[in-house]
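My current task is to audit a protein record that another person submitted. My question to you is simply how this chain folds and whether the tokens agree. This is what I was given:
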Amino acid sequence: MPDSQQSAVRIHWFDDQVRNRALVVLALITLTPLALEAIDLPIRRMVFSLFGSAIGVTLSGKAILVSALPAITCAGVDWLLRDHPDVRAGEIPFLFPFWIAPGFAALALALSLTHIASWPLWVLTLFLGVIGIGAITLSEWLTLSPATPGYALSRLLLTAGVYATAFALFTLIYTTRERSIINATLIAGVGFCLTLDLVAPHIIGLRTGLIQGAIVGILMGQATWALNYWNISNWSAGVILLTLFYVLVGLAQQHFQDRLSRTVLLEFGAVTAVALAIAWLLSGVR
């Protein structure tokens, strides 16, 4: 039987073992915020200097949540994906790009939970966030192999999840109103990592994916640095950063697929115009 047919008949859907692993991962993601919310941890603050600027770091239950939840999610996703047939067959040499979307979705969820004071809204956000992380993880599983049934739909859902995560993180980071050395660097890092997920380095090559991610990340950081000198609302900044990210990644994807044309450029121009109009409408919303 040809290799393509062998790949097509492989089972890429969740079997019982993988389903059980997925439930364990989602249970850990759910229980971690609940446990940290129930435990009253002491608060510690450390101050250090970076490039001559004093930077303070607060160690608390919220800080542990922001660092632990993405780590647990990435470890769980890696554990889950290693049971994929193509991974076991050695056809996918690296898995770390597939941690990115679930890990950053977990980071967005953790940051959101730290800003919510209402207990019912906190629980609802946790519930919806875990469902979103589960959907992204399932999409990552199904997009490991282009031969998987439903690959196109899964890739579409994963892309939507990545852009939603990007908007949430861009907005949350910009909301801190930290110095450019901090928030511009963070947004550059988010842009780099999420680009690496979207351009599918296991298909176009890891080196090409890393280069494209670095370009997008640098441009996102420079844009954030410029936005810090512009007195706009957090929501407007989030929309502008998301639009820039969408255009940069979209142009890269079209270039890789040899589909870059005048029509595509007009499409991205129209999207940018609409986004700028939305950003202007949100300029008074803090």
In short: Residues 1-11 have pLDDT under 50 and may be disordered. The CA atoms of residues 43 and 60 lie 5 Å apart.
